[in-house]
Amino acid sequence: MELSSRFEWRGRSVAWHRLGLGPPVVMCHGTPWSSTVWSPFAEALSADFSVYLWDMPGYGQSSKQPSHDVDLGTQAELLRDILQYWELESPQVVAHDYGGAVSLRAHLLHGASYASLALVDVVALHPWGSDFFRLVAENAEVFAAQPTAIHRGALEAYIAGASHRGLSPEQMNALTEPWLSAEGQGAFYRQIAAADERYTDEIQDLYAAIDIPVKVIWGRNDTWIPADRATQLAQLIPGAELELIDNAGHLIQYDAPVQLATALQRWLTAGQ
User: Fold this and answer.
1) Vertex 99: Cα angle to 98 and 101 (nearest 5)
2) Of 37, 45, 59, 184, which is least packed with CB atoms within 10 Å of its CB?
3) Cα separation of 120 and 216, whole Å?
4) How does residue 184 score in pLDDT terms, banded at 50, 70 and 90?
5) Mapped to the 3 state alphabet, what secondary structure does the chain carry?
6) pLDDT higher than threshold 90 for residue 218
7) Pick from 21, 56, 25: nearest CA to 268
8) What is the pLDDT of residue 254?
9) What are the tens digits of pLDDT across the range 85-140?
10) 253 close to 37: Cβ distance less than 8 angstroms
């Protein structure tokens, strides 16, 4: 989906798009993804909601300047500001992967108000990251300078590990395309190098103070962030609901689209 609008923020150009009319829903993506993972869900939900899609700077269709920070702290400040730009006082928010940490930080540290929050296979509890993240952090410039074919092979292997059922060639192409240009290759390794557990450590003790409705949805077969984290997270947030979806990994949007769409429709409709 082409994101048709732009929000200029601290020298960055943030691509975004709105679909439908109705109560607002904001969908937040993670890494190394973009709003592409949410596009079919946004189209389906647009029959009942105004759905806002956006790409974080450094990702997807947004700007990818090497000089711009892409850490989770910066992205959370951006989320607060783009909600104000959209004039959304208390939207329902749906977040995946890094989007979880971004939306939680925006709410807990920067005063972003939500009507509800759905956390889907999110980065929220330590430890997270991987040996690959640490290797990239120590050698980001070397990885960025790899020959294109080697970068593509490593990228595809990395992304493939997020799906339990396996990705079609079309799905793989959609997920890798933003990272295959010279600009995209550098941006891919910069956002991994910026990963730092301190961004969740700073808020983890605050989860007990969350007083909005929260739904935790997780793929039971997620190998990137195992499902026991879903249970821990739901226990830390007062009143949080937990739903585990069978035969789904970290890329639950592709592994179990019908089950996820049904869970989100029920949750968001109840929150109107």
Assistant:
1) 70
2) 184
3) 6
4) very high
5) CCCCEEEEECCEEEEEEEECCCCEEEEECCCCCCHHHHHHHHHHHCCCCEEEEECCCCCCCCCCCCCCCCCHHHHHHHHHHHHHHCCCCCCEEEEEEHHHHHHHHHHHHHCCCCCEEEEEEECCCCCCCCHHHHHHHHCHHHHHCCCHHHHHHHHHHHHHCCCCCCCCHHHHHHHHHHHCCHHHHHHHHHHHHCCCCHHHHHHHCCHHHCCCCEEEEEECCCCCCCCHHHHHHHHHCCCCEEEEECCCCCCHHHHCHHHHHHHHHHHHHHCC
6) yes
7) 25
8) 98
9) 999 999 999 999 999 999 999 999 999 999 999 999 999 999 998 888 889 989 98
10) yes
Query: pLDDT value at position 131?
Result: 84
pLDDT at 271 over 90: no
Predicted pLDDT of residue 217 = 98
Backbone dihedral region of 247: left (phi > 0), alpha (psi from -120 to 50 degrees) or beta?
left
Mean pLDDT across the chain = 96
> pTM of this prediction?
0.97
Of 49, 98, 50, 97, give the one whose Cα is nearest residue 78.
98
Query: Residue 182 corresponds to which amino acid?
Result: A
- Identify the CA nearest to 127 among candidates 210, 218, 220, 225: 225
Q: CA–CA separation, 85 vs 70, rounded Å?
A: 20
Are the C-beta atoms of residues 193 and 137 closer than 8 Å to each other?
yes
Contact predicate 127/60, CB 8 Å: no
Ramachandran bin of 10, using left for φ above 0, alpha for ψ from -120 to 50, beta for the remaining angles = left
34 neighbors 40 (Cβ within 8 angstroms): no
